[in-house]
Structure formats: C-alpha cells, structure tokens
Description:
With 127 residues, this protein is of the alpha+beta class. The protein has one domain: 2-Layer Sandwich (GMP Synthetase, Chain A, domain 3), CATH 3.30.300. Strand 3 and strand 4 form a beta hairpin. Helix 2 packs antiparallel against helix 3.
Amino acid sequence: MASAGAVSPAAVSSVAVAVAELGGRVAISTRALERTVTAIAASRLGVSSSDVKIRLMDDAGLLSVTVSAPVRMPPLRANTSGQTLPARVLAARAEIREDITRIAGAHVGTVGVTVTHVNLEVERRVR
C-alpha cells in the first residue's frame, strides 16, 4: 500500500502533459501516480503490490521515489545465473525508474529501494 508522501504540486505538474494542438491538458493525480509506481515496483521486484510501500517526494521539480518491499529471488541452489541480491536490486531500481518515466511520463530524480526481506521462489521437482 502506498504511503501518503508529500508530493508537491510542482512534482505532479511535471507529470502533467500539455496538449497544445488540442488545447487543454492531461494531469495525473497523486493517488493515480502512487498506485502506478506501486504496481511498477511490485512487478520489477516480483512481489505482490500489497507488499510494496512507496513514498513520493518532490526533489527540485523531479519525482523522488522511495520503495520498501521484499524481493523475489530464485532458490539458492537454482541460482545458476550467479546474480547476487545487490545486483538484482540495482537492476530492479533502474527498471523502476525507466518504467515510471515510460508509463507515467514523470521526470524521475532518485529511486531508493529498501529490501525488507527476500522471498525465495519455490523449488519445483519433476515427478
């Protein structure tokens, strides 16, 4: 669930898109942005949206995002890729930032990720 972060009108307006040729504008509410960011973070960390907590702040006109959530990792014996937990989180952080920009059109300053715990994927055996 998203926390009620202090998002200033400047940060929300950085998401607003002027539609010059049609006249008018399109604006994304803070709540809609919070839910979008929560869904993006959950998807990139491989967990449920209900396990993700976010905080959105204005960072000199850019959107600052703080994510607190578990991360899903492969079983220890099955981690043949050799990907470490820090590498997994760094990759997810970059993907979260790119997805927010691509999907919401927000200008993202910083993205911080705090891992609350690790969910190991269930190792399935062939019968």
